[in-house]
Specification:
The chain contains twelve helices and eleven strands. With about 300 residues, it is an alpha+beta fold. It has two domains: about 10-105, Phosphorylase Kinase, domain 1; about 115-300, Aminoglycoside phosphotransferase (APH), C-terminal lobe (Aminoglycoside 3'-phosphotransferase, Chain: A, domain 2), CATH 3.90.1200. The radius of gyration is 20 Å and the shape is globular. GO terms for molecular function: kinase activity; phosphotransferase activity, alcohol group as acceptor.
């Protein structure tokens, strides 16, 4: 095996996992093993990157470009989702070693996401990209390996109650009541991206769809849950405008109608997901971001 190369993880990743993270300490070994396994030559680390993974631009033995992604956790689920999509609307999975958290992916243009477009155009392209991902999680009659929205959100209930400040108690109650009602009346079970936003849609080379989705944390559930994260995209820009509340409700209507999703279900999931995300920010000490998300939830 090749000697462990020097790795400078992006600051965003270090902040998210903590400088003393055992996984960060293991990165040189994991990277060296993946480079050797697939006969890759490393070019550079993608920055700012994600909060739970390292992406390295590489060349394969035949000289073709690719991207090596090392995930702290969740590699098996991402690999399964990408294999299910098989390049239709999403980055193509070339190979995987889930036990090492390693995914070998086709290379996209990491520096060009939908966030480079004006908001209206970005949302149109986002809706088109997302529509292609909503497929049954497995062939008819087969089992799927994915966590459901019900299971995923159940893990957050205690954290929401513990970490969202008491003055937002009415919003917390509404969010959790909405979650229960939505799950009791779930209309469909489709494969979802799980963390869909404009920044997760990257430009591709000619010969592929112009925009392809990356970075899924896949779940199985209804479309409105997936679309709800997109509702609050560019949140700080939204908060800086006058009439943010009415603009938010208009965004819900436009996105729901463009993808034939029930408006009320999208509004309710958007409320829940904002409060849940706020709880994570409060728990991590990012109070300003948590308060911004609570304010957004109030606009809904």
């Amino acid at each position: 095996m090749a000697s462990a190369p020097h790795v400078d993880p992006p600051r965003r990743l270090v902040r998210a996992l903590g400088a003393d993270s055992p996984w960060l300490a293991s990165l040189p070994r994991l990277l060296a093993g993946s480079l050797a396994r697939w006969e890759l030559t490393a070019e550079r680390v993608v920055a700012p990157g994600g909060r739970g993974s390292l992406v390295v631009l590489v060349r394969r033995a035949d000289g073709t470009p690719a991207a090596l992604k090392l995930r702290a956790d969740g590699a098996a689920a991402e690999a399964a989702a990408l294999a299910r999509w098989d390049g239709h609307g999403a980055v193509r999975l070339l190979d995987a070693a889930p036990r090492d958290g390693a995914l070998l992916l086709e290379r996209l243009h990491a520096e060009v996401s939908l966030r480079s477009l004006p908001e209206a155009k970005a949302n149109l392209e986002a809706a088109s990209a997302l529509r292609r991902l909503w497929v049954p999680p497995a062939p008819t009659g087969a089992e799927h390996p994915f966590t459901t929205v019900a299971e995923h959100t159940a893990r957050a209930v205690d954290r929401i109650r513990e970490h969202v400040p008491g003055e937002a108690g009415a919003l917390v109650d509404e969010a959790l009541e909405a979650r229960s009602a939505l799950l009791d009346d779930a209309p469909e079970e489709l494969l979802l991206h799980g963390d869909f936003r404009q920044g997760a849609v990257l430009s591709a080379d000619p010969g592929r769809a112009h925009w392809l989705v990356v970075g899924p944390d896949p779940l199985v559930g209804e479309r409105a849950y997936d679309l709800a994260r997109l509702v609050r995209d560019r949140l700080h820009d939204l908060g800086a405008t006058s009439g943010a509340s009415s603009l938010t409700r208009r965004r819900v209507r436009k996105l729901a109608d463009s993808l034939e999703v029930d408006r009320e279900r999208l509004r309710a999931w958007s409320l829940y997901r904002a409060v849940e995300s706020a709880s994570r920010h409060f728990a991590a000490g990012a109070r300003a971001d948590g308060e911004m998300l609570v304010e957004f939830a109030g606009w809904l």
